[in-house]
Fold this sequence. Notes:
The complex is a heterodimer. By secondary structure, chain A is of the alpha+beta class.
Amino acid sequence: xxxxxxxxxxxxxxxxxxxxxxxxxxxxxxxxxxxxxxxxxxxxxxxxxxxxxxxxxxxxxxxxxxxxxxxxxxxxxxxxxxxxxxxxxxxxxxxxxxxxxxxxxxxxxxxxxxxxxxxxxxxxxxxxxxxxxxxxxxxxxxxxxxxxxxxxxxxxxxxxxxxxxxxxxxx
Amino acid sequence: xxxxxxxxxxxxxxxxxxxxxxxxxxxxxxxxxxxxxxxxxxxxxxxxxxxxxxxxxxxxxxxxxxxxxxxxxxxxxxxxxxxxxxxxxxxxxxxxxxxxxxxxxxxxxxxxxxxxxxxxxxxxxxxxxxxxxxxxxxxxxxxxxxxxxxxxxxxxxxxxxxxxxxxxxxxxxxxxxxxxxxxxxxxxxxxxxxxxxxxxxxxxxxxxxxxxxxxxxxxxxxxxxxxxxxxxxxxxxxxxxxxxxxxxxxxxxxxxxxxxxxxxxxxxxxxxxxxxxxxxxxxxxxxxxxxxxxxxxxxxxxxxxxxxxxxxxxxxx
Lengths: 171, 317
Ligand code: SF4
Ligand code: SF4
């Protein structure tokens, strides 16, 4: 019986505590830098799309909400013809970001995505693509990857030496 | 002003007041629970969220009122109204001030006990008519629970009746001019408080509802305003028990300075808030715990209270 009264008193003392609620629209909650929110597609420092349409994010996505179609430009650079994320299915697990070899797909700390009309949750590439490099400022996949595309031959990447001429006897 | 007009005004005021209180309690309870759980509760609609009541009303009146095809229709429809009717009728006997009372019954308390026993039919029948095993379990629990608390509820009031020498609530209030009854009748007060909690089927005695075991207990199948009636009935029950505690143990409308009805309202609201505080604190009892608590602890205590009070009353006279 005494414990009951003690419990009631403890609860009553909470009347004078600070309330924990964050009054959301007026007051923004604190979001840590690695918060997993609305997904974006970033560009490399040269302003080119980072995504190489490798499908790894779509394969990693546990709820299968990413759809894309690969295509190539005249230099042999791959990019997605369309890139679609259905945010009404996305669970913001961040697996796509983990899987992406080029840092193209990134989760941001924006979560205010409410919509009145359900199809509005399907974001196309023009909604996803931003004009900056996102969280990784200096990374440019084509400058470190060994493949040759227009304007860059084999061995011209950073930290890469020219290919060895296997027919030459010179050291 | 003629006597009939006066009684009609009193009747309308009490009726509207009770209904408004019951509706307002939806908001008050959520705000207070929020306060005690370090959050806000509804605070968007209107000042401090008070228009939430209106929003809830609109919602519940416009919701689809569905009767399941397997239900026992007439009983299903009557059940929710029983609880509202019996509870409103009980308010007739409560004096809100000298002469401000709908019916000055000389058996007022007995009338209240009768009505509170009837209200259990609402829950039991709702459970029965729903033809759903969870509802039925809820209804059965309500019936068994009533057997548990109804006995000591009546007995706990006997001390007050002995002291006041009357069943009439106005007489009981007048008998408290020298001393409020919760001092000489403290055990009776505690026992009635506990019985009142069980009577209103609120935590820790909300076994018939028990949403985490029985879906929603007896009102699982109810929707729309029929569900709303159970809700309003529950809140009116809380108001009724609070008003009765204030009347029987805390001097009713008596108090300095302020007008009597205001005192009555203040005291009632203090107990309503206390009920909500209890809901914020305690977990639900188990079924067998409630029954054995009622029969093995509360009943003997209530009997002891009667014996002692009776002995003292005889000794003094
Ligand atoms: S965050 Fe998870 S669920 Fe959402 S798109 Fe990426 S992988 Fe799929
Ligand atoms: S976003 Fe990344 S993982 Fe997905 S297709 Fe483009 S490059 Fe591959």
